[in-house]
Amino acid sequence: MRKIVFLDRDGTICEDSDYLDDFRKMKIFSFSYDALAIIKNKGYEIYVITNQSGVAKGKFSLEEAENQKKFVLAYFNREKKLIEDYLYCPHHKEGVVEKFSFECNCRKPKTGMIEKINTLSEIDRKNSYVVGDKLIDIELAVNLGVNPVLVLTGYGNEEQKKIMEKDYNVLIFNNLLDFANSII
Ligand SMILES: [Mg+2]
Ligand SMILES: [Zn+2]
């Protein structure tokens, strides 16, 4: 069984810049590298799982989304491989770019991106987490049956109220580094 931490990107490992359209402008939080190194050292596999509907909405190209992926992987995997893989959903049912505008089954909180890495039956659910700053991340965790974690960076503060109204058993941390330090 595999212990896995699924990480949201925007608002969790970097600032949420609302449809970032140039990977060179991505602002990765200063603590994120250390946080991922700690998580990895504790024996977890790390995957980034991110909705990038800006592609469907015509805010940036698929090529740019690929560049952002490469940038994140290069940043975190520069010394050792901290991130196993980075998956993103470019779709949105109300997009403007026809090719990407439909109701997909990979957009969080759906589990399609994770099914792609084909680990569903192997996940050690008790010891795995989805960490993010939005309700959709919490609901992804619920849909997978793993522990939901809210960080208060990004939209975390704003989303907290909405999340607390639901009866999910959510762990809350100020940021990803606090989460990394707290898990066993
Ligand atoms: Mg987010
Ligand atoms: Zn999708």
Short description:
Strand 4, helix 4 (135-144) and strand 5 (147-151) form a beta-alpha-beta unit. With 184 residues, the chain is of the alpha/beta class.
Structural domain tally: 1
In the CATH classification, which architecture applies? 3-Layer(aba) Sandwich
Name the strands of the widest sheet in spatial order: 3-2-1-4-5-6
Terminal-residue CA separation: 16 Å
CATH uppermost class = Alpha Beta
Number of strands: 6
CATH topology: Rossmann fold
Could you tell me the mean pLDDT? 97
- Give the radius of gyration: 15 Å
Order of helices and strands: EHEHEHEHEHEH
Structural class: alpha/beta
Sheet with most strands: 6 strands, parallel
Topology:
Elements: E1 4-7, H1 32-41, E2 45-51, H2 62-76, E3 85-89, H3 112-116, E4 129-132, H4 135-144, E5 147-151, H5 156-165, E6 171-173, H6 176-182
Helix pairs in contact: 1-6
